[in-house]
Design goal:
Order of helices and strands: EEEEEHEEE
Number of strands: 8
Structural class: mainly beta
CATH class: Mainly Beta
Strand order of the largest sheet: 2-1-7-8
Number of domains: 1
Mean pLDDT: 96
C-alpha cells in the first residue's frame, strides 16, 4: 500500500527538526497552481505525529510540493539569521508516479544548506 512520509534533520545542531512547520500541496490540473492538502508541525523525532502525510487511500499520481519553514524554525531556536535569511522556506517539488509506492522525502537542513533524496 502506498504512502508519503517526510523526516527533517537539523544538521546545524545534529538533531531532528522538532517544531518545524511543513505544508503539503498538490498541483492542480492544467497549471491551476497548488492546493494545500495539509499543514503540520514536526514532532520530537522530526516527523509527522499523525503518521504518513498521505495514506494509501489518499495517494494519487501527480505533482506535489512540500514547503519546509526553515527560517522560522531556526529563528525559534534563537539562531540569528540575516534579513532576508539565506534559506527561509524550502519548496520541494516532486512527482508521485506510482500511487501504490512508498515515497519518503527526507530533508537535511541548516540555515545555509539543504539536501534531499527519495528515501526508503
Amino acid at each position: 500500500m502506498g504512502h508519503l512520509s517526510t523526516h527533517v534533520l537539523d544538521t546545524m545542531n545534529g538533531c531532528p527538526a522538532a517544531g518545524m512547520k511543513v505544508t503539503l500541496q498538490r498541483a492542480g490540473d492544467a497549471g491551476a497552481g497548488f492546493e494545500t492538502l495539509k499543514v503540520l508541525v514536526l514532532n520530537q523525532d522530526g516527523r509527522n505525529d499523525g503518521g504518513p502525510l498521505l495514506d494509501a487511500a489518499a495517494m494519487a499520481a501527480g505533482r506535489y510540493r512540500l514547503l519546509f519553514e526553515v527560517g522560522d524554525y531556526f529563528r525559534g531556536l534563537g539562531v540569528v539569521l540575516p534579513e532576508p535569511a539565506f534559506i527561509d522556506t524550502v519548496p520541494l517539488d516532486f512527482g508521485i508516479a506510482d500511487a501504490q509506492g512508498h515515497y519518503h522525502v527526507p530533508l537535511l537542513v541548516s540555515p545555509w544548506t539543504y539536501s534531499t533524496y527519495r528515501g526508503s
